[in-house]
Amino acid sequence: QRSLFSAFSRFGLLYSVRAHGNAAVAGPGYYGVIKFYSAGDASRAQRACNGQGLFQKSPLKVCVCTKQREFQQQAPALSSNKCQELANHYLGFNGWSSRIITLQNVSGFDGEKEEAGKASQKPPLQFLCALEVTLPQHGIRSRGVALGQADAGDGQDPLEILMATRRAQKLAVGKALAGAFQKILLVVLENGKVAVEYNSSQEEPTDSLTEEELKGLIQVNELSLEEFDLEEEVLSDLSFDD
């Protein structure tokens, strides 16, 4: 698998490399599945490597896969890790940056109710993240907004709650980053130059909001009335900021 990666990565950025053993009816040996981000890179690799002994004596047969998985209306978006890998390769490590506009705890706002007679189970921790990706050399800014959640069990173990909080936050940030990159189009030319365009067809209603409006999407603190034993007249003195 490392040999395959080394041989084919010189033609372009690889999405994944997998090596598998042949089926019993095909005899001893292995075959590999190499996925490129660019179809052009894959075609160049096939033409250059087919019939060559890349890392072994016997020549390899290399062909472009024609069987494609059928997707529904829209192809799945790249994960945040893959988006960063792609951006670093074509734009450079200093060619883009990201910043979190807001990361809010929105747990408990879905109105879920526990059914009587069932064991008490805390609802999952939920965090809402608004994030902005900037490409300074191209004058492009793109936003992503996403929700991440993680199960905290019965909510009694502080360590479990802390770990669930970190998972939910990390998931929300990653999904928001992927959402922001989904609106950015990288046009890779044959000479290696890269043009960047903003895909306005992927815009969401939150893209038109100001940062202050984004930060104010959720500003509510949960209070347990039983814990504080507050009377109605005391509650009337509380503001949203409190």
Automatic annotation (TrEMBL):
Pfam families the UniProt entry points to: DSRM_RDM1
Top-rank taxon: Eukaryota
Any one Gene Ontology cellular component term annotated for this protein: cytoplasm
InterPro entries reported in the protein's UniProt record: DSRM_RDM1, Rad52_Rad59_Rad22_sf, RDM1, RDM1_RRM
MF annotations from Gene Ontology: DNA binding; RNA binding
Keyword set, alphabetical order: Cytoplasm, DNA-binding, Nucleus, RNA-binding
Entry's Gene Ontology BP terms: DNA recombination; double-strand break repair
Main location as per UniProt: cytoplasm
Compartment list: Cytoplasm; Nucleus, Nucleolus
Domain DM1: 78-185
Entry protein name: RDM1 protein
UniProt organism field: Neodrepanis coruscans (wattled asity)
Gene: Rdm1
